[in-house]
Amino acid sequence: MIFAVYDFYKYWFHKGIYSDIGLEKAGFVLASEGLLPILEKVKCGCVFVHRRNSFLSWLVMYYTGPGIISHCVNMFEGGILYDMTTQGGIRHHISDYFDGKTYIQLIDIPAQKSNIEKMKTSYEIIIPGSKFAWKKVFLFWLAIITGADVEYRIRYSLDIILVLLFLFLLCLPYLAAQVFIATVLLIYIAIVLFNKLLRKVPGE
Questions:
Q1: What pLDDT does residue 203 have?
Q2: Which end of the chain is more exposed for a tag (fewer CB within 10 A), N or C?
């Protein structure tokens, strides 16, 4: 877990790409009341969010990166957001992100008024009250760490291999546990090699 721990350290203590300067270079600004007059005039847009001091947000960035986007949400005129959170789908206002530590980047989406209304209506029906897709997220994560998704990075495998080797050493007095861990390790390596060398991964 060396790579994960190091990246989490940078995230938690705002180093490198996670620093104020790094975020600003990437086009992010601190979400604050001063932005409200601009944000509320946007007819249709996508807000990229970088949340600080959130383990779940860091997990998203680490396994879909390297990147600094922990969340994205659709925004309509008046600063209204249709947001899918881990608690479920909600309709709320952009000012909920004005907590003094969240950074945002706005992408204005040019669209005709009729299309904007159709999008807003569909989100109003689908998002509020809907459940968060934990199962899909878990399967997506499995696909990433096993090389079955384009987001795969070698550091994910190194993290897992190092953890399994550490557990193997901890279980020196227990042969059955060592055999189990070694089997898991070999199966994992075989799956990754199959996905990266023999299987065509969509998006690559």
A1: 57
A2: C
Q: Which residue has the tokens 């065509």?
A: 200
CB atoms within 10 A of CB 104: 25
Whether pTM > 0.70 for this model: the answer is yes
CB 104 within 8 A of CB 97: yes
Q: Which of 69, 58, 61, 66 is nearest to 28 (CA)?
A: 69
The answer to whether the peptide bond before residue 66 is cis (omega within 30 degrees of 0) is: yes
**Average pLDDT for runs of 10 along the chain of length 204:** 90 94 93 87 88 92 86 88 88 91 88 80 86 91 92 92 93 90 95 82 58
Element (H, E) at 23: helix 20-25
User: Which pLDDT score is estimated for 204?
Assistant: 57
**Core vs surface per residue 26-55: b (16+ CB within 10 A) or e:** eebebbeeebeeebeebbbbebbbbbbebe
Cα distance between residue 74 and residue 82, in whole Å: 6
Taking the CB of residue 185, how many other CB atoms lie within 10 A of it?
Answer: 17
Closest C-alpha to 202, from 127, 140, 160: 140
The three-class DSSP label of residue 202 is coil
* Residue environment code for 57-68, b if the CB has 16+ CB neighbours within 10 A, otherwise e: bbebbbbbeeeb
Rounded distance between C-alpha atoms, residue 94 and residue 73, angstroms:
10
